Amino acid sequence: MTTTTTRPAAASGPSDGPTAPGPVKLKTRREPERFALIGVWAIVIIIFSLTTDRFLTEGNISSMLGSQTVLLILALGLLIPLRVGDYDLSVASTLGISAMLVAILNVNEGWSIVPACIVAILAGTVIGAFNGAVVVKFDIDPFIVTLGMSTLLQGVLFWISDSATISGIDVGLSDAVLTNTVLSIPVNFWYAVVLCAALWWVFDYTPSGQRLLFVGQSKDMARLNGISVGRTRFLALVASGTIAALAGVVLAGTTGSADPNSSASFLLPAFAACFLGSTTLKIGRFNPWGTFIALYFIVTGTTGLQLLGAQNYVQQLFYGAALIIAVILSKILRQRNDRRLQNDARQAASAEAAQQSTNSKDIA
Description:
By secondary structure, the chain is mainly α. The chain has a domain at 58-261. Helix content is 71%, strand content 3%. The longest helix is centred in the last third of the chain and has 50 residues, at 314-363. The chain is globular. It starts with 5 loop residues before the first strand and ends with a helix. Mean pLDDT is 84; it is low at 1-28.
């Protein structure tokens, strides 16, 4: 990333003496390491392309991109509270509740598929609102609140499903999220890309996105600057619950069923993608495109290894290792970025002091 710090000089009129020098410009710095994961991803693709002729086939590429859409949508929802410095451990259980509600309402109760999906998504919104209200109202660590909610929802999930898989969901949902393709890739992948682009726009180009970042950097500083920290955290958790429920609807359409045991396996990979993504493109910041790259980097690695004969457990190994490495790298890179900012501030202060001293001598 290229950064330039500028300190403007005070404006002066014709009668104020010598013309003030131009703005102070600090040394431009580039951060090539923000593209490191993309480079490693490219190397991994080349290696597997050379070692197995099944890797770059149309079917395998379509499978890699389409099979992880649910996880990508879930990770994108998780990004929003992470952006404000909060953890939402209930997203996977919210996904499971949403998928199960679609199955129960559509299969057991005879609802048409559209109202069933709407109710499922609204359920995620309610869960997120409850999490946010408890966190903000009682000033409780969201880690604890959402962990408790996750356990509660898992119990509800087994209760409403009688611990059984419900199958036979309307094929219209499967057609809408899986069967139909664009460029030979399941349409659900393109839904996730659109969501990723929308979050990128919100994060980078809207006041709401800037408030999320500001609160995540320092809640006390954000509060002193007039930002409603509680409201921002509340809305972040509401958005997280809503998007997690949307992922549940996509899961129901992808599998055509709802399994009460399936949702728990999504939590660790979602966190791994988010943290590894924070070391990419925008170092130290949770960002949508970084998450996209990180997720499909992991998918590429696990798929290639499985094509070479590795066992299925390699996926858990990859996700666990990615999470540990990502957290360590994120911490190191964030600390280094903080040191750079402090050094830039010292340079700016020094340059401004020297400029003021020169101006004083010129006036004298």
